[in-house]
Amino acid sequence: MGNTTHNTSEIFIKDRIADFDYARVGKYKKIYCCARNYDRIIWEFKKKDGLHWQLFPWFHVNRMSDNQPSLQDKNQTLRIIDIGWSNEGIYRCTALSSENNIIGNHSTKIEVYSCVDRVKPEAYGPKTQYGRVGGTVSFTCTGDFGCTSDDANDVSWYDENYDTLDDDTLFPRYNVTNVDRSKHTIEESTFVIKTIEQTDFKQNFTCYVSSAYGKGDKKFTVHLKEASVEITKMTLITAEEIKGIVAPCVVILTLVFVFTAVFYFRIKLFILSRIPYWHLRDRGKSYFIKNSDLYNM
C-alpha cells in the first residue's frame, strides 16, 4: 500500500465518527468509519497495551463464532455482538484507492466497562464536618447511577436559597468540583469552602442527587460545625503554697523517725517473738524463742 494521498477531513465524516467510546461487557457495539471517495476499506485492531496492529479478521478463522466482529455497509461498520474484555483497544479503519493507495485512516479507542443496571441511583450523602474561621473544609456527595448513563443524571450543591454553590460570582469563597468515575456511571461532587467565615456555621448546605428517570432522587442537608478550641491552663504554685505542702510532710517524717529511734528495740523484740526459727532444728523438733528468753538475752 502507498502513502496517504488526501486530507483525512475530506475522507471521513467527522460528526459520525468518534475518537473515543465506551463499550459495556455483554452488550452490542458498532464502530463506524464513515469514509467517502474511496475504493475499499480495511480494519485493524491493536489490543490495550499492545504493540502490533492485527489486520481483520484478527481472530482465527477456524474459531469463528457469532461473537466475533463482523463487517457491514461495505466495510464502513465494524460490529461486535457480545463485548468482552478482550475487545478493549484501538480500532483503525483505512480507506484505500483503486490503486491500493492509502487515502486516509481513522482510529477509535474503545474502553470496555462493566456496571449494574439500576432503576434508581444509589446516593451517598456528605458527613458533618468541623472547622475554624479562616480554615478550609470539604464535603463529598456521590451518586451511583449504574448503567443508566444519561446527561440528566446530576449531583449538585445548593444553599438555603437554592442558589447553586458553583456560582463563582455569588460565592467566591466556595468551589464545586464534579468527577465522573467508572465510565460515567458514578458522579462525585465535592463542595469546598476555601476560607471559612463565622456565617458559614449558621448555614445549611444541600446536595441533590437526581436521575434521568426522576426516581429515587435524594436530598442531603449538611452543616458545618465550629471546632471547639481547647485551652490548657497552667496552675502556678506560689512559695507560700509550697511551704504549706512541704512543712506538714517534714513534721510527719520527723515524728516517724523519733518514734522509730525510741521504740526500736521494743518493736524488734515484738516482731522476733512471733517469728518461728525454722532453721533451728534438732532431731526433727522445732524450737521457738519464748518471750521470757527474749528478755533474758
Automatic annotation (TrEMBL):
Keywords: Disulfide bond, Early protein, Glycoprotein, Host-virus interaction, Immunoglobulin domain, Inhibition of host innate immune response by virus, Inhibition of host interferon signaling pathway by virus, Interferon antiviral system evasion, Membrane, Transmembrane, Transmembrane helix, Viral immunoevasion. The chain crosses the membrane at residues 245-265. GO terms for biological process: symbiont-mediated suppression of host type I interferon-mediated signaling pathway. The keyword Disulfide bond applies. Residues 121-223 form the Ig-like domain. The keyword Transmembrane applies. It comes from the Eukaryota. Interacts with host IFNA1. Counteracts the antiviral effects of host IFN-alpha/beta and key IFN-inducible proteins involved in viral RNA degradation suxh as host OAS1. Acts as a soluble IFN-alpha receptor and thus inhibits the interaction between host IFN-alpha and its receptor. This is Soluble interferon alpha/beta receptor OPG204. It comes from Mytilus galloprovincialis (Mediterranean mussel).
